[in-house]
Specification:
Order of helices and strands of chain B: HHHHHEEHHHHEEEHEHHHHHEEHH
Oligomer: heterodimer
Shape of chain B: globular
Largest sheet of chain B: 2 strands, antiparallel
Largest sheet of chain A: none
Radius of gyration of chain A: 23 Å
Number of strands of chain A: 0
Helix content of chain A: over 70%
Helix content of chain B: over 70%
Distance between the termini of chain A: 58 Å
Low-confidence stretches of chain B: none
Structural class of chain A: mainly alpha
Low-confidence stretches of chain A: none
Number of strands of chain B: 8
Largest interface: A-B, 34 and 43 residues
Strand order of the largest sheet of chain B: 1-2
Chain lengths: 79, 505
């Protein structure tokens, strides 16, 4: 099914691929901007991971039941 | 509640990331429409100069967009790490609009952005123009979903609290998405973005005219910027008026802080310029203002659309005013405590499988849930936001907005007369007003967020309960990491932008 759709539209898909390929190949200012984007994403998702995203709510409490229990304890201010 | 220093650091961290994020956002919102207008002129006239102008501003748009992209995601992470109780409590109500925004932004950026930047001379003029308009409309629609989420925090509607899961569950998506507070907030926020972008275009164009470079392109850009700014300033005025009206109806304490009203009045006047008395405290007879100019009736009109109406002050809201039907905060605190106890007893009954007691306590909880958050307070005075910060931020925003409107009129008039380059002082004003646009927008966000303290969710959840009980040191470390990252991004943006601007059209 997917293959049939791909075959039927292969020219269109190829044109789209070429469009993006040429676009990226001809980048000037965009090259610097993409570098900044990648560095930024690396910092956010990998560097900060070590300092910021450890021991958070999602990591500590796996099931919805555990999360509910934790939040209820805080809502009701129980030690 | 979490230890105070940890909460304050989490607050500071969120404020830092939100304020930095909103340096990048408004320029994207407004500049996208300015690009669409410029390209429309190019397509209509087939004048190659307009193409060159559009491409120049498009490059600046790209710089701002690239530096700003994903800065908002940090705030979403913060919800999970620093505000876990809040994140769980709001359930899918907050998550749904953010998810829609994420999906929308991805598809928009993957398709129309590519055509806009890569498509010159590769696709038809019409299709390229359509893509530019789609980017403008899509970027602003993207902002809509974020502001729906924020609007819900200011005015929670369309949900019911489930005591079994400790979550608010969405009952009516359209009530959340089309909440009048959210709509007013969205219109006012995008309006501010439009004005900021207009000031940016005017400021950069004025700089070219001062340097006597690219005069023709700069003059054309200046006219577009001033016209767009003029129209959007009028739009901003009306959307601001609507926002103030909604605040009066849904967050009267915020309005009282914005306007520095301690004692409510009929036919209340508005103080457009005033200096607050720093010694003024709740319940004393000191004057609120050391100095103040008042426009009679204006606040009653602004807040209630009725010049003779009563506008409650901070003291009415705290101590109540039975004549005017204003319920004292203590009553709401008592209701909140009933709701909290009912939730506690519901859980105990559930543990004991006592369905009858569960039903009774659930009914008490539902009856008092609208005041749930008040149960965490003992003193009604704790429910007063920082008045001075809210008041001055609001007045700074309004004063700057008024100045921008005047500047747009002057620049538009001189541009039409075709002799703006002779008025160098006005051109310098245009240059120096670029950062002031951002100052006004940030002041607006301070009003919106500081003015509703101590609430994370209006009336339902105070900030202290919303916060995760993290160690203050953990939050401090991440605060400084974010501060360094955002400062680096801002420096990069300024450096790349200035370099590109110097090159010219």
């Amino acid at each position: 099914m997917l293959w049939a759709i791909f075959r039927a539209n292969s020219r269109v898909l190829k044109a789209i691929f070429e469009f993006y390929k040429q676009g990226f190949a001809n980048l000037t200012l965009g090259k610097i901007l993409w570098k900044i984007i990648f560095v930024k994403l690396f910092v956010i998702f990998f560097v900060f991971e070590m300092f910021v995203f450890d021991d958070n709510f999602k990591a500590l409490y796996k099931s919805d039941e555990e999360k509910t229990h934790f939040v209820l304890k805080n809502l009701l201010q129980e030690e | 509640m979490a230890e105070l220093s940890s909460v304050d650091w989490s607050r500071a961290q969120f404020a830092l990331t939100a304020l930095y994020h909103f340096i990048f956002v408004p320029l994207t919102l407004g500049l996208s429409f300015i690009l669409a207008i410029m390209e429309t002129i190019y397509v209509k006239t087939s004048d190659e100069k307009w193409k060159k102008i559009t491409q120049f501003w498009m490059a600046l748009f790209a710089i701002n967009f690239a530096i700003g992209v994903a800065t908002g995601i940090i705030m979403e992470f913060e919800f999970g790490t620093n505000w876990a109780n809040y994140s769980w409590f709001v359930g899918d109500i907050f998550g749904a609009p953010l998810a829609v925004e994420g999906i929308m932004a991805f598809f928009l950026e993957a398709t129309f952005f590519a055509v806009m930047f890569f498509g010159w001379n590769k696709v038809s003029k019409g299709f390229h123009l359509l893509s530019t308009w789609c980017v403008a409309i899509g970027s602003n629609l993207s902002a809509f979903w974020i502001l729906v989420a924020n609007g819900w925090m200011q005015y929670p509607v369309g949900m019911a609290f489930n005591p079994d899961t400790a979550r608010n569950e969405m009952q009516n998506f359209f009530e959340v998405a089309l909440s009048p507070v959210a709509i007013a907030k969205f219109l006012h926020t995008i309006g501010s973005g439009f004005v900021i972008a207009a000031l940016f275009v005017m400021g950069v164009s004025a700089w070219f005219l001062l340097k006597k470079r690219f005069i023709s392109e700069a003059k054309k850009s200046l006219v577009v910027g001033a016209s767009f700014g003029f129209v959007c300033s009028i739009f901003l005025f009306f959307s601001g008026d609507e926002s103030a009206y909604r605040v009066t109806q849904t967050q009267p304490m915020k309005l009282a802080a914005m306007e520095g009203i301690y004692k409510g009045e009929h036919r209340a006047g508005l103080v457009p310029f005033g200096i607050l008395n720093p010694n003024k405290t709740l319940g004393d007879n000191e004057n609120v203002f050391l100095f103040g100019l008042e426009i009679p009736y204006a606040l009653s009109i602004l807040g209630n659309r009725d010049p003779n109406s009563f506008v409650p002050g901070i003291e009415d809201l705290v101590y109540g005013n039975s004549e005017k039907g204003v319920v004292p905060m203590q009553e709401r605190i008592d209701n909140g405590k009933l709701a909290l106890n009912a939730l506690k007893n519901y859980q105990l009954a559930k543990e004991n499988n006592d369905t009858k007691a569960m039903s009774e306590h659930r009914s008490i909880l539902e009856k008092n849930f609208k005041d749930f958050g008040y149960g965490y307070f003992d003193d009604a005075k704790e429910l007063v936001p920082p008045v001075a910060l809210t008041f001055y931020s609001f007045h700074l925003m309004v004063a700057l907005g008024s100045l921008f409107f005047l500047l747009f009129i002057v620049v538009l008039y001189l541009s039409m007369a075709n002799n703006i380059e002779k008025f160098r002082k006005i051109l310098w004003v245009c240059v120096f007003f670029v950062p002031l646009g951002f100052v006004a927008a940030e002041a607006g966000w301070i009003v919106a967020e500081v003015g509703r303290q101590p609430w994370a969710i209006q009336d339902l959840m105070p900030v202290g309960v919303a916060a995760t009980n993290l160690g203050a040191v953990n939050v401090q470390i991440s605060f400084w990491l974010f501060a360094v990252l955002f400062t680096a991004l801002l420096v990069a943006e300024l450096k790349i932008m200035l370099t590109y601007i110097k090159k010219g059209f």
